[in-house]
Amino acid sequence: MQAFKTALGVCLRHPVYLIVYVGLLSLMGLFMGQSLVAAPDEGEFSAARIPFTVVDRDDSRLSRAIGEFLAARGEWVEVADEQRALQDAVATGQVDYLLIVPEGFEEDFMAAARGSGVAPQLESVFSFQSSSAMLADTQVNQYLRLVGVTAALDLGASAAQAIASANEAAQESASVQVVNPPQLAVGADAFLFYLMWGSYPLTAAIVVSVGLLMGAFSRVDVRRRVLVSPVSALSLGMQKVAAGFVVTVAVWAFIIGLGLAAFRGSAACLPPGALALALIATFLYALTPLAIAFLLGQLGASEMVSNAVGNIVGMVFTFLGGAWVSISLLPASVQAVASFTPVYWLTNVLSSCSEAGGATDALWASALPSLGVLALFAVAIFVAALVGGRLRLQSSQAGGNAAAARSR
Amino acid sequence: MGTVFLGTLRMLVRERSLFVWALAFPLILSTIFMFMFDKIDEGTVFEPVATAVVADEAWGESGFSAVVDQLSQPGGDKLLDIREFASGEAARAALESGEVAGVLRVDAEGRPEVEVAPAVSLEGVAGLGDVNRSILETVATAYLQNARLIADLAAQNPLVFADLSAVEAAFSEEGYTKEVSLTRSAPRETVRFYYALFGMAALFGAQIAMYAICQTQPNLSPVGARRALGGLSRGRTLLVTVAASWLVSFACLAVAFAYVRLVVGVDFGNRDGAALLGMAAAALMACSVGCALGALPKVDMGGKAGLLTGGTCLLSLFAGLYGQPCMQLADEVARNFPLLASLNPAKAICDMFYSLYYYDGLAVFGEKLALLAATTAVLFAVAMVFMRRQRYASI
Predict the structure, then answer these.
(1) Range of the domain at B247
(2) Residues in chain A with pLDDT < 50?
(3) Do B127 and A326 touch (CB under 8 A)?
(4) Burial category of B230 from C-beta neighbours within 10 Å (exposed 0-12, middle 13-18, buried 19 and up)
(5) What does the pLDDT look like over B199-234, one tens digit per residue?
């Protein structure tokens, strides 16, 4: 048990890694998951509120009315009428839609509607969210159509009266019904997304922490002392693996606990069977970074290498798992590559949980192959680590049989 | 000095683990970004909304069907992509399967009705479902508003509709807006993630200078101990070490830049020379970070590496690297606490390339370069304070 205790002690003496990878990265997952906690529709439709701004250089009744019409449907963001501020607003997506009302617009618009002169045009600027901008632009055109038609047909109406008629008509709205597909676990997205993102802190934290623990035993002087001690290689290896397993369970429990606490409402939307399945799948996934860390330790990787491998593999896995962008949006070749990683199978299970609105027996039956593949990944890497460790022990560098053969 | 410079250079190049962070990391992550953002940039370009219509008898007789037909005509103004279904059940099945964003139908009185799917789903992390639903609602609402306006006008003055051609002309007026651009290059959501990636890559490159400085510290490495006994003064040793570290850092960033520019195809506003100058400044700043960390007394190399990794991850969060919510957070912080944001070197590097892409002049680029230079000077000064008159194994 001495090696087991020492191994855990090594981990605890490097709190920076645990704080950074478990604490900080999990908090980032919380933050991102929160952005998905848009209340589920529950049968009520709420329109997308597009962030926009109106640069009003006319300051007329009509220009103000356009702004008010858009503000009733979107989020008006105040932006200074200065070149750089306007550029930043569209370049950073602070607003999806920017409308510039030129001076004299109301006068020219009313005159054109009544048949004298050419209708003036407002300048619209689209940010990168073209669909959102298109929606706001459609709304502006609709409102101006209401005002223009009134002015064209009721020649006696003043600008104020035309605006009042348009506002009256704009009270109308279509009936919209939200259809919840029966198989969808509505509201569980935030928690499931957090679990998908959780593959990053799980991978990075476990690989780095357990890699550190394993690496501490790989130092030349420590290895020499351990090799002459009355502890068998098998016992030592099992104690190191046990310590790594304890670290893995602790990291998994912390990340899951944080998610359950922060997204308890979202997690409660899952049937108990689906929730248990999601947690078990995440745990089985966590065994893969444990096996990777064991492999790194067996190969004698340094702290810096463990750190790099944990971070990069974590990022790549999170990406391939669809936490950054939905896997269905990735090219077919990347999806094919993703199926050779454990995170793909984790995502499979989590996605099927999101569709578990009712019975979970069928869900478990369909998820079992994915759970099996997840476990197999860990077993395969673990076996590779054992073989790698054995070869390294026999290498000439380690002073094993190969060195003895060479010295002959 | 030349010999020490070459020796330091050789030592850094032979330490392969340094290149994992400084070179492999930006190459791997930019490749990931390339695949990841490919569809996102496509997705931000407006596509007509896939819509199911219930083409029953009432639909054929309603005026709304003519409006929908007009909005689904091929051309630049095409708003809807229509799929007709004979029954409401079939249309709803298409909605539930995700084939369409919504269902349009009319009731017995010819009033349009809309059915849509829930707004948020796992597939909708970067999705457009919410906007598409609203476009369908806007189409139906616009029809009702027009109908209401006609009814109101007719109630006030029935003679208004004596000339139907005038009514038709009034409603046929379209295009009250024209799209213009305010920026040097068209806004693209994804470019800033690559710029933030260079912020992170530059800071990870600080490992190089940190390692090199640790190799000059007699208490941290045997090489440092030997160098302390050498003929070259400590000041010159440090100068040469920083120069070699900068060269390696800059070379790594330059290779990553070439890859991102030529293979991934990221635009730096067609100002590649200025971008390379920015990379050189970022590499120098990274060296100053590495020196300051490397000079920290009583902290071993592993602890310093942990601090650098953790710090870089945190600073990259506020440069917006980890996805759209993070980018929004970084923008909020920069708008509300500009001084705090300017203290973040990862954000400064990201903004430097952003200014090349979006702004016409180079004034802002110059400001960001000056900011990086100031940060570099401060960090080198901090490193000097730690390194000056350090005593090893003193009695």
Answers:
(1) 2-40+188-387
(2) 39-41, 407-408
(3) yes
(4) exposed
(5) 999 999 998 999 888 888 777 777 777 877 777 777
* Number of domains, chain A: 2
pLDDT digits (tens, 9 = 90+) for A194-209: 888 888 888 988 998 8
Same domain, B10 and B66: no
* A128 to B133: CB separation less than 8 angstroms, yes or no: no
Indicate the number of domains in chain B: 2
| pLDDT at residue number B124 | 40
Residue B197 is which amino acid?
L
Q: Which residue of A has its CA nearest to B192?
A: A92
Q: What is the CA radius of gyration of chain A?
A: 31
Residues B13 and B34 grouped into a single domain:
yes
A46 assigned to some structural domain:
no
pTM for this structure?
0.79
Residue to test with chain B: of A304, A306, A316, A355, most B Cβ within 10 A? A304
- Cβ of A146 within 8 Å of Cβ of B29? The answer is no
SS3 B217: coil
CATH number (domain holding residue B128): 3.40.190
ipTM over the 0.85 cut-off: no
Q: Are residues B340 and B202 located together in one domain of the fold?
A: yes
Query: Could you tell me the residue range of the domain that residue A110 belongs to?
Result: 51-169
Last residue of a domain, one of A139, A169, A199: A169
pLDDT at A222: 77
At A87, list the tokens: 């550029």
Residues 6+ apart with CB under 8 A from A217: A3, A7, A223, A226, A236, A240, A297
Task: Identify residue A22 by its one-letter amino acid code.
Answer: V
Residue A329 and residue B178: Cβ atoms within 8 Å? no
Find the CB nearest A174 among B114, B180, B187: B114
Q: Which of A192, A303, A319 sits opposite B36 (nearest CB)?
A: A319
pLDDT digits (tens, 9 = 90+) for A23-76: 777 777 777 666 655 544 455 777 788 999 999 999 999 999 999 999 998 999
